[in-house]
Amino acid sequence: MAPPKKPRLNAGTSSEAGPTAPDTVPERPSRPTRPWNPDATQDSATGQASGPDAAPPPTVVIASLSASTPTAGPSASASLTRYYLRHAFADRLPAPDTTTGIRTFGTRSYVNLESGETVQVARDSEQHFRAKLDSELLPSGPRLERMTGSLLWRQQGAMTRDQAPREPSVIDSWRISSAFAASDHITIDGHHYQTVENDKARQRSVIYIKDPRHPPYDFDTFEDLLFFHTGEQPRAAIQVPPDSHWTIDPRLPFEKPLVGYAIEFFPELRADTQSKFSRRQFELANDSNFADARGLTTLRQVFNNWKDKTASLHPVLTDPLLMLPTLPISAELAGSNRSLQLPLPSPTGPLARLDFDPSLFLPPSRTFPVIADDIEFMKFMTERLERNGYMVFPARSLPSFPNVVFKRAEHDFIFFMTLHRTETQDIIIPRINPRDFGLVLRNQLGHETMNAMESAHNDNKLISLRGGIQTLPSNNTPTATVFIVRDNT
Q: How confident is the model at residue 407 (pLDDT cuts 50, 70, 90)?
């Protein structure tokens, strides 16, 4: 029987305060206990400590990393993670002061860390600089200091990797006794390791070993592991020719939490949309709520496709638009327009729509809710798509109605999206004669774009979308969001 599923953690919600409000990496509610049962007892034959007071495994040291790579230990890294700014915001901050390294924007101060991340800082009651969240009056983060002879900052007392004490690899503590080795284990250099669930029906050249005390990894458990105990994630084991012996890959399979990849490659999506997307991506990759070897490898391949902008063997996993449910359009009635009802925007629940965070738009935009001109509307939505990795086909002439045609490098689907403005939960779709619609569209888009759409349609790879601006009342103040949904036309 599968272990009881952990309660889902609340996804972060984005700020609507405007372009000066930075959006940090989505927070976990608090630093959780490790994802194994601390009361579990191991038999002495395993050679591992047991009981609730057993010491946790030591931090892994990856020998292939440069000696100058910074480290502050697992607790320090975890405590700073929640203060990291999104790169989309950090990239538009002023340059660092040539003396202090501080980047000043209005009344706020920011510094670049030696890790490559950026955080907001402020002085505490003792006039020490600390990392700060934008929502805080006083800074709550670790104390920071500028590195000697550099404009970069680091956590006070942090050590570089050549200064850090050498500890035994965490992987050594994962060894299990042959007497307790179940069928889901592998032997490497005479030592036995438990493996992440594998597809028994297929022989795989890459599997993953894990700490035997870890439970099966559902999305929340795996994200907590990557957020707070990155070095304790499963490791890949690879078969090496010519004798196909197994060896452990010392590299970490994942450099950041899964939602961190969504933040990097879809930077303008709202935080709750990114979280829902990452959860759905995890479930689809593993074809389950729990991780297996095939799913972990698939996720790594997808993230490499994003990085390299290469075609993917798993197109649905590369694009949140391909994950959206298909929404029905009302039946056509004589004398009336059709309509499509939008799902309610919500910080929780399944991925039903894509929402964009206006505070992250480049350039910052406070006027987008009142865009009235169709050309400007199309230009505005084109900017949103291009900023998030899509390629938009050029329009040849002025539009009879606003729309965009676009695609991604990672797959060969083509998206056709009509643009709408609405102040309700419904999109009104005017009645158009199909023959007139085709002629108007061909004149507007041109033969090249229309031929690409027709070819995609014949291959069942033309996706119909509706997107635009939805303005709804919120605490007596209208709140606008930029959305995309998928329909059944």
A: very high
Q: Per-residue pLDDT for 290 more than 80?
A: yes
- CA atoms of 400 and 221, how far apart (whole Å): 50
- pLDDT tens digit string along 254-280? 999 999 999 999 999 999 999 999 999
| DSSP codes, 439-471 | HHHHHHH-HHHHHHHHHHHHTT-EEEEEEEEEE
- 141 with 83: CB under 8 angstroms? yes
Task: Look at 47-51, 224-228, 285-289, 439-443 and tell me which has the smallest mean pLDDT.
Answer: 47-51
Gap between the Cα atoms of 134 and 83, Å rounded = 9
The pair of structure tokens assigned to 45 is 């034959």
Would you give the end-to-end CA distance of the chain in angstroms? 42
SS (H, E, C) 93-141: CCCCCCCCCEEEECCEEEEEECCCCEEEEEECCCCCEEEECCCCCCCCC
Q: Answer positive or negative: Cα dihedral of 41, 44, 46, 48.
A: positive
Which of 244, 243, 386, 388 is CA-nearest to residue 319? 388
Q: Which among 352-356, 448-452, 485-489 has the top mean pLDDT?
A: 352-356
Nearest partner of 237 among 256, 218, 251, 226, judged by Cα: 251
- Distance between CA atoms of 9 and 227, rounded to whole angstroms? 13
Q: Which of 203, 198, 228 is nearest to 216 (CA)?
A: 198
Tell me the residue type at 357.
Answer: D
In 10 A of CB 300, how many CB atoms?
A: 15
Residue (of 116, 114, 117, 139) closest to 128 by Cα position: 139
409: β partners = none
Backbone angles phi, psi at 315, to 5 degrees: -60, -40
pLDDT digits (tens, 9 = 90+) for 28-66: 444 444 443 333 333 333 333 333 333 333 333 333 333
* Six token digits for residue 30: 């608090």
